[in-house]
């Protein structure tokens, strides 16, 4: 289970509690401590949920057989093969444009700084989604330590 946003008295909280009772793995995307919707994931992280900032954090935890199955299903047939960039929209979304305007080629920006700068403009879920889309389309790169940069 992946929790991105959840208020203190939300259905997500109930679902997460049930998942914990069934010994299921829980991943949580941290959020701004002043946001009501960040209470759920932040509390779950304190209770042992796996801190998740990118899709790789979830991918690393998947069992090998699941990874193999997903990779085999993702392998395009020769007739279907398309460049990766064509799989994503050429025109960035408004959120992606905001992120692109923050990031630089000559200096990396930590995820916390990105969230702080976009506070009130975008939710943490929107930021993580936009970062994922931009990274997958090759418009940005993630560096070690959850730092982001525009490629040269």
Question: How would you portray this structure in words?
Answer:
The longest helix has 13 residues, at 124-136. The radius of gyration is 17 Å and the shape is globular. Strand 5 (141-143) and strand 6 (147-149) form a beta hairpin. 42% of the residues lie in helices and 9% in strands. Residues 78-88 have low confidence and may be disordered. It is built from 7 helices and 6 strands, in the order E-H-E-H-E-H-H-H-E-H-H-E-E. The chain folds into 2 domains: 2-74, no CATH class; 84-149, Winged helix-like DNA-binding domain superfamily/Winged helix DNA-binding domain (Arc Repressor Mutant, subunit A, Orthogonal Bundle). The strands form 2 sheets. The protein has a 3-stranded parallel sheet. A 3-stranded antiparallel sheet has the order 4-6-5. The relative contact order is 0.14. With 152 residues, the protein is mainly alpha-helical.
């Amino acid at each position: 289970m992946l929790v991105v946003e959840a208020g203190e008295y939300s259905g997500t909280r109930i679902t997460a509690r049930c998942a914990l009772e069934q010994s299921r793995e829980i991943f949580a995307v941290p959020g701004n401590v002043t946001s009501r919707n960040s209470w759920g994931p932040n509390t779950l992280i304190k209770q042992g949920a796996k801190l998740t900032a990118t899709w790789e954090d979830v991918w690393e935890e998947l069992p090998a057989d699941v990874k193999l199955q997903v990779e085999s299903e993702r392998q395009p047939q020769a007739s279907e093969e398309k460049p990766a960039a064509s799989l994503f929209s050429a025109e960035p979304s408004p959120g992606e444009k905001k992120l692109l305007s923050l990031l630089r080629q000559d200096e990396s920006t930590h995820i916390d700084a990105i969230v702080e700068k976009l506070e009130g403009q975008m939710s943490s879920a929107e930021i993580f989604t936009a970062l994922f889309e931009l990274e997958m389309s090759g418009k940005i790169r993630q560096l070690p330590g959850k730092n982001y940069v525009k490629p040269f």
